[in-house]
Amino acid sequence: MVIEATDLGRRFNRQWVFRRLSFRLEADSSYVFTGPNGSGKSTLLQILAGTLPATEGRVAYRHGGKTIEPEDFYRHLVIAAPYLELVEELTLAESFHFHTRFKRLRDGLTVRGCAERLGLAGALNKPVKHFSSGMKQRLKLGLAFFSDTPVLMLDEPTTNLDAQGAAWYREHVPEYSRHRLLILCSNQPQEYAFCGNVLDLGTASNGS
Q1: Strand-pair category, 29-34 with 197-200
Q2: Could you tell me the residue ranges of all domains in the chain?
Q3: Among 2, 77, 91, 115, which has the highest number of CB atoms less than 10 A from its own CB?
């Protein structure tokens, strides 16, 4: 999987968040976008995911030597982010069953196996609306980690996690990002210490 951005820019009203960003992201590598609040980390991630249009520039996708049309890229990625909501009327087990209608689980995992790896086996039949914020975040990460997709996107992955949950993330993210293209947004070094490539949007040109 290769994602190539050329002269990307995004403007809200008359204010440019960033401009003239060009880079190439390749499979079997991890990348993190850093920068102060308002520098456009989440905006850039959403543009790469295809859920938000760029104001200028373009993004190209290739997988297995073949070009992927932007409208089909969603089939190849999974994303966990604070602004993406879970279906709270579903139980944990139902959440995984619903998710697998669109993205299959990797490594022959079962729904129960996923819940056990998350430390949430006791909540399999519990509605998500009764989960704590930390349990919801762990479920979001599990849905992303355990999906069989070549691209994994994470935005502020330890949001709402307690010390135990953050430790669980740090222990497992290297394993579940292996052989994938990982794109992460964070200002916390402990979330991305393993990443080999850092793009600081705070130092990128934002134009005028």
Answers
A1: parallel
A2: 2-200
A3: 77
Using CA atoms, how far apart are residues 154 and 160, in angstroms rounded to an integer? 14
pTM of the model: 0.93
Other Cβ atoms less than 10 A from the Cβ of 132: the count is: 11
**How many Å apart are CA 198 and CA 206, to the nearest integer?**
18
User: Which tens digit of pLDDT belongs to each residue from 108-149?
Assistant: 899 999 999 999 999 999 999 999 999 999 999 999 999 999
HSE, side-chain direction, 13 A CA sphere, residue 139: 31
| Residues with Cβ within 8 Å of residue 166, at least 6 apart in sequence | 158, 190
What fold does the segment set 2-200 form as a domain?
Rossmann fold (3.40.50)
Closest to 140 (Cα-Cα) out of 102, 195, 189, 99: 99
Kind and range of the H or E run holding 175 = helix 163-176
